[in-house]
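Why do we care about 3D structure at all? Because function follows from shape, and shape follows, mostly, from sequence. That is the central idea of this module. The next example makes it concrete: a single protein chain, its amino acid sequence, and then its structure expressed as tokens.
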Amino acid sequence: MDAVYSTTVTPNMIIDLLYEKKTISFQACLTQLFAEHLSGGSEILLLVVMAYDRYVAICRHLHYMMIMNQQVRVLLLLVTWVGGFVHGIAHLLFVYNLPFCGPNVIDHFCCDMYPLLKLACTDNYVIGLTVIANDGVICVVIFMLLFISYGVIMHSLKNLSQEGRRKALSTCGSHITVVVLFFVPCIFLYMKPPSTLPIDKFLTVFCTVFTPMFNPLIYTLRNSEMKMP
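And the structure:
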């Protein structure tokens, strides 16, 4: 397949706005697919790292500087990017050798797994299951583990002072909000049989545009400077 035609924007967004049809080469489509899941996989692992950081800060606060030293922070950062890279490469391997011999129009905002599988001229049942396992199941498992970890953190708040509980709840509340905004749309997108629904485009935009826009606002509102009249 030499090119993919999308009904919406592509990486050449500025140029494409001048044309009725938006096109992207197959190689650029795969690059977009890799970049999307590289950032998504890294974001998932980063949220896990942030949850661990909050656990140490609240439940092991006297040992925080010893546990979360510079070497550990660098290691955790590398893990997030390496994990995201492996996650993105896995999607490329799923798609790269698929035969595309039919229509090449994607009714979607970006080159994602399910829209591409819909264009493949082969049985994609097995690959669909791997996508569910690599995306949907992982999102569900990590989402549940994060909420369990915050349950542990909330249980430990009884040992803190009233001011300590207030600060801990403020810190955890912002992170839980970001976790819900990120994982709920992802679970709906990938924890289903290989198919595309009209709402998928809205959820994709929400995950890739609105959630990153909300994150700075959610975390900034915790700053004391922002709370001052």
